[in-house]
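Exercise 7b. Backbone tokens:
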């Protein structure tokens, strides 16, 4: 027998050029990318973070806290978004059922250098999901380590 879900869980997390959550639907443009090229890393960039949260029946009508954090490769926080939400219990939701809540948030951040970054989603104080992306400067080849020389 399948065990009933007890806690809300993040079902998916993605980065997009733009995303909106309206009336139970997610509208995404340029979604699910993992590399961004920018003309100048010293300037702020904007993008959206979209996610779906599965809320089990027993976790409805309770407050929950969502926190999104943009981190660099060293784990330093560069931008943060926090929200508190309550998922109501619609009359058609039966015991053991899940309902999905959709969220989209705009992010504006300055990325200090080329390389790896992460979007980390925390739900009710614990890390629930993360996704990563790479930042590069437009028209600039990647910096590769020098090849070993032969003597």
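Sequence design result:
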């Amino acid at each position: 027998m399948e065990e009933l879900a007890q806690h809300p869980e993040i079902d998916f997390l993605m980065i997009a050029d733009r995303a909106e959550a309206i009336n139970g639907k997610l509208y995404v443009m340029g979604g699910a990318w993992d590399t961004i090229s920018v003309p100048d890393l010293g300037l702020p960039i904007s993008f959206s973070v979209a996610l779906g949260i599965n809320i089990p029946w027993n976790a409805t009508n309770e407050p929950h806290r969502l926190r999104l954090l943009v981190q660099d490769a060293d784990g330093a926080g560069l931008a943060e978004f926090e929200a508190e939400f309550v998922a109501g219990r619609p009359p058609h939701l039966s015991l053991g059922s899940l309902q999905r809540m959709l969220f989209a948030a705009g992010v504006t951040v300055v990325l200090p250098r080329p390389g790896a970054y992460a979007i980390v989603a925390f739900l009710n104080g614990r890390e629930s999901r993360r996704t990563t992306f790479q930042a590069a400067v437009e028209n600039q080849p990647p910096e590769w380590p020098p090849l070993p020389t032969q003597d």
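Instructor comment: The first strand starts at residue 9 and ends at 22. The chain is about 0% helix and 60% strand.
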